[in-house]
Amino acid sequence: MRSPWRAGPERSRPRPEAVLRLAVRTFSELCLTVGTVILLFVAYVLWWTGVTADRAMDAELAGLHERWERTAPAPPAPQAGAPPQAVRHPAGRAFAEMFVPRFGAGWRKPVLEGTDPDTLKRGLGHYRGTAAPGGTGNFAVAGHRRTHGDPFKDFPRLRPGDQVILKDPAGTYTYTVRTGPVRTLPTDVAVLDPVPVKSGFTGPGRYLTLTTCDPEWGHSHRLIVWAELAETRPARQASP
Amino acid sequence: MYGWIWRHLPGNAWVRALISLVLVLAVVFVLFQYVFPWAEPLLPFNDVTVDEGSGATR
């Protein structure tokens, strides 16, 4: 199409309409394009991140189990007195498996070291520097409530008495929810303390903290649940 | 815009339709693979941790 403004004076009569038509058409095509991209983005956030996250979490679990089977004789489960704090996992590495019966019988997710966005796309994130599974202190874990597989979608349905079960090569740790869900501010890092003030725990113990975002699709607050270790079952000792 | 692209594609209508389809799929792929993963952390759904400021997960 020739540039409208280069037209000679004898052809100037139909030009303004042509310009207008071109402008309107281009504008509506742009609008349609932007709308389509936005719809695609919604599909990406709501659906595709879940597909990739589910795939990644399954891969993490499979890798975890494979690694556990290769390194057969598990170290003894930490008993009272033995500080299990010593184990340091590389960032982004899965090291435990979590079950929450309240979230459904099939709900099992890998727990990875660290809480970077990339880590949280592949499972739940263990806050660096907090306690080890079953250890004295506070084992703190963050997870997505929405998008990336929605692992903590049913977080608000947790109630005191619910079980949170952790499994690692050393054993199985069953925690019982004591407090929550509690709404707090994103800056409230005291919820991760070895003895969190708002949790109602009064002395040192073996605690677990779960965090996710609140409201469901927002980020102005966080939801917190605190649990306390109820039972430790050491893994069956493999014969040498 | 789309008319301009259509006029500049080679071949007859079928070939052009095929090329258009490939172009659309390529655009969707680039969006899902590169553009959306970049844009997604700008939304609030990633903020699930407590930390100083809102840093650790953006």
What report would you give on this structure?
By secondary structure, chain A is α+β, with helices and mostly antiparallel strands. Chain A has one domain (50-234): Sortase (Sortase, Chain: A), CATH 2.40.260.10. Helices cover 25% and strands 27% of the residues of chain A. Chain A is built from 2 helices and 8 strands; from the N terminus they run αββαββββββ. In chain A, strands 1-2-3-4-7-8-6-5 form an 8-stranded mixed barrel. In chain A, a hairpin with a 6-residue loop joins strand 7 (206-214) and strand 8 (221-234). Chain A is elongated. The two termini of chain B are 37 Å apart. By secondary structure, chain B is mostly helical. Residues 53-58 of chain B have low confidence and may be disordered. Chain B has helices at residues 2-8, 13-39. Chain B has a domain at 2-40. Chain B contains 2 helices and no strands. Helix content of chain B is 59%, strand content 0%.
Assembly category? heterodimer
Q: How far is it from the N-terminal to the C-terminal residue of chain B, by CA?
A: 37 Å
- Rg of chain A (CA only): 26 Å
Let me know the average pLDDT of chain A. Answer: 85
Please tally the β strands of chain A and state the result. 8
Poorly predicted ranges of chain B (pLDDT <50, ≥5 residues)? 53-58
- Most extensive interface between two protein chains, with residue counts: A-B, 41 and 26 residues
**SSE run of chain A:** HEEHEEEEEE
> Treating each run of at least 4 consecutive H or I residues as one helix, how many helices of chain A?
2
Q: What is the CATH homologous superfamily assignment of chain A?
A: Sortase
| Secondary-structure class of chain B | mainly alpha
Order of helices and strands of chain B: HH
Number of strands of chain B: 0
| CATH architectural label of chain A | Beta Barrel
| CATH class identity of chain A | Mainly Beta
Strand-pairing-aware structural class of chain A: alpha+beta
Strand order of the largest sheet of chain A: 1-2-3-4-7-8-6-5
Instruction: Quote the CATH topology of chain A.
Output: Sortase, Chain: A
Helix content of chain B: 55-70%
Question: How much helix is in the residues of chain A?
Answer: 25-40%
